[in-house]
Amino acid sequence: MSEAKKLAAEKAIEYVEDGMIVGVGTGSTVAYFIDALAAWKDRIQGAVSSSEQSTARLKSHGIEVIDLNAAGPLSLYVDGADECDPRKHLIKGGGAALTREKIIAEASERFICIIDPSKQVDVLGKFPLPVEVIPMARSLVAREILELTGGQPVWRDGVVTDNGNVILDVHNLAITDPKAMELALNQIPGVVAVGLFARRPADVVIVGGQPPQVL
Ligand code: 5RP
Description:
By secondary structure, the chain is an alpha/beta fold. It folds into 2 domains: 2-120 and 200-214, Rossmann fold (3-Layer(aba) Sandwich); 129-194, ACT domain (Alpha-Beta Plaits), CATH 3.30.70.260. The chain has 7 helices and 13 strands. β4 (83-84) and β5 (90-91) form a beta hairpin. α1 packs across α2.
């Protein structure tokens, strides 16, 4: 699958334009995108990063990392996903960076999602849905998620997000109405962000292959 990830990432470079500040996601697919972006480092203003991991990789290539507050609205955001349905709704957060990813997606005019074919599904939910939670609310949120969805929340033990929070991965979901579930889970006190990107889905999905498919 890593070849497919690389092919998707390299196709996404076609959306980068001179002078841009590029929003950059997190994960192994995005790592290929960052490596390809290195060739553009003197042509772009820099990048807004969604994680410490991506920041380190961007900096290792000499790409300037810009704070979102200073950057303002972005024209382009490139990120991976754990699952993608035919309406370009996504599950994200396998790398625990969902909150910052969601913020950057919201700030961006165009969200290009880069995936390998294994991420394409008809119905979201086979991949456990990540939810970032304030630590003191972990048990409360788990109980409420169980009651609300019937899914089984599992604490991602040992993982602390870049924001100092914890992750609950919700198993055994079949998410037929992703927007409604995103809105409902967002209402639980203690939830910081839900790894469903339905209210703000991807605009373009690139599926890695020979040639890459642009949806
Ligand atoms: C990180 C994410 C990633 O985009 C998602 O987990 C996909 O990762 P990869 O490209 O390594 O398969 O949402 O929080």
